[in-house]
UniProtKB/TrEMBL annotation:
Region (Disordered): 186-213
Organism from which the protein derives: Lachnellula hyalina
Residue spans of biased composition, Acidic residues class: 203-213
Cited Gene3D superfamilies: 6.10.140.1230
GO process annotations (BP): vacuolar transport
Name of the featured protein: Vacuolar protein-sorting-associated protein
Top-rank taxon, per record: Eukaryota
Species lineage: Eukaryota, Fungi, Dikarya, Ascomycota, Pezizomycotina
Length: 228
């Protein structure tokens, strides 16, 4: 029935703008949730770096292993921050799309016609490639095509500009470690020197290593879940 009506009647502008706004709000809420989750993972990565550094100070025999762990967690932290930055940028683009869509429908109401927007097309092209929003952004692009705000569907052959997974430069890792560990030292005034337990058994050391590995796996799992 809807397809028959679409042949003989133009889409209702009020229905179209409500649908577009609904999809934009849905995507905005999704981005807000993902940004908040990344903040939690980032804090866990910072804590893991501090704990590994503390363990190295308490147990010289674990210094090498702990140093490796701090660098692994620092690389994960760099990836988390880059992904978070990408999502914040995407949210700004989505807000821009929302304002431009509202303006386009307002012009249509006044002038009786609507003009396609290159700006909206550019932002939608970028957002539709974001894994976190791909499905709903395609639906939004369809609604914008129907309304005449963009001229064509977003294609699948656009270049992939998402974050690569290559190893970060060692200088960037050093910068992150310096930021976190020096910031912590500044807050307490001196380098932590918490005395080691009276009986530091090898079993406890093994458990610390297992906890670090489990924490790293958990952070990577959350990152992959956010990307999927």
């Amino acid at each position: 029935m809807e397809s028959i009506r679409a042949v003989f009647f133009k889409p209702d502008p009020q229905v179209q703008v409500r649908k577009c706004n609904q999809l934009i709000r849905q995507n905005t809420r999704k981005l807000d949730r993902d940004i908040a989750q990344l903040k939690v993972v980032e804090n866990k990565a910072r804590t893991s770096i501090i704990q590994a550094n503390r363990r190295a100070q308490r147990n010289p025999s674990q210094a090498k292993q702990a140093a490796q762990e701090t660098r692994i967690f620092a690389r994960e932290l760099i990836r988390i921050r880059k992904q978070s930055t990408r999502l914040v940028t995407s949210k700004a683009q989505l807000n821009s799309v929302s304002m431009q869509v509202t303006e386009a429908f307002a012009v249509r109401k006044i002038e009786g016609s609507i003009r396609s927007s290159v700006g909206i097309m550019k932002d939608v092209n970028s957002l539709v490639r974001l894994p976190e929003l791909m499905g709903t952004m395609r639906e939004l692009s369809q609604e914008l095509v129907k309304a005449g705000i963009i001229e064509e569907m977003v294609g699948d052959s656009l270049p992939d500009e998402l974050e690569d997974e290559e190893e970060e430069a060692e200088t960037e890792v050093d910068k992150v470690l310096g930021e976190i560990l020096q910031d912590r030292m500044g807050k307490v005034g001196v380098t932590p020197s918490t005395p080691a337990p009276v009986q530091e058994q090898p079993v406890a050391e093994e458990e610390d290593e297992e906890d670090a590995e489990a924490m790293l796996d958990q952070m990577r799992g959350r990152l992959e879940a956010l990307k999927s």
